Amino acid sequence: MERLDAFMARANAAYYAGRDPFGAGGDFTTAPEITQAFGECLGLWAAVTWTLMGSPDPVILAEAGPGRGTLMADALRAARAMVPDFARAARLHLVETSPLLREAQRARLPEATWHEDAASLPDGPLILLANEFLDALPIRQFVRRDGAWAERWVAGGAFAERPASGVALPGTGAEGEIREVNEPALRLAATLGARLAARGGAALFLDYGPAESAPGDSLQAIRGREAADPLAEPGTADLTAHVDFAALARTARAAGAAAHGPVPQGVFLSALGLHSRAAALAASDPGRGARHIEAATRLTAPEAMGRLFKALVLCHPTLPTPPGFETA
Ligand code: SAH
């Protein structure tokens, strides 16, 4: 018998250690693998945020869960072309636990330094990017039973329940209601919040989840682009859960940082100029022009990835509002 978060941590560590899940033929695809314009826009976001910070040199440019390194390679190429002083000041640090994906990242970003955990990033002003990182971190789940909370454990491929302890949950709940808590994400928000308040900078998270904290079971497994049983064959499917952006913002604020958002990904990327970039790519690549436009639409359309995915930024309390969060 294993608590759900321990099960999910073990399953995902095995999953990411054993394969490159992205792209054609993989289990799923992510925004940076859909179009280079995504990483390029985030690179320019980082460069503008750096100027809002007062252009510190050096600055730590970090990414959590960089996958194949595609986002950061695109971001740095755009930054070198448009804001070369930022690219020169940036010291690249990647937080990645999978040895296999570290190798893929090293091929594209040989200048990086790797970390197991964001807590070991060097001190100083920081810009951190993370796309579909928080959703892979292990969650705990609680179920309301007879006026009290029970916790979900995993035994023999099925859920079991035990009395809950050591966690702050609402005092009430409807019978059978499920609540999720992502403790590593909340710890990261607290650590980053304190660090950003003390040393300056911003951390941008793109992920999927509701705008407000909400009850419900969001644990899902994807294998070969299809939904699978999350508890069966651990390590063979990608396990994710919705991100509770409101809880992360509250936690970072309590640690002294400011938080903007979440804003829908479609609103955020459109404000950063994703569609103009896609049009420019289409014009310079007429044979595949439609592909560039379709990719931008997929990332921004509400019925595709534009609404369920959201952007949240945690930052120093006096930093002017970073690009894309003007409406938040
Ligand atoms: N950002 C990439 C990859 C998303 S998949 C993209 O958008 O394509 C999740 C990434 O987080 C993978 O690189 C995975 O190996 C990494 N990861 C998962 N759990 C982690 C953890 N606890 N610490 C560090 N990296 C982790």
From TrEMBL:
Pfam family, one: Methyltransf_28
InterPro entries (UniProt xref): NDUFAF7, NDUFAF7_sf, SAM-dependent_MTases_sf
SUPFAM superfamilies: S-adenosyl-L-methionine-dependent methyltransferases (SSF53335)
GO molecular function, one term: methyltransferase activity
Gene Ontology process terms (BP): methylation
Domain of life: Bacteria
Sorted UniProt keywords: Methyltransferase, Transferase
Name of this protein: Class I SAM-dependent methyltransferase
Organism: Muricoccus vinaceus
Record lineage: Bacteria, Pseudomonadati, Pseudomonadota, Alphaproteobacteria, Acetobacterales
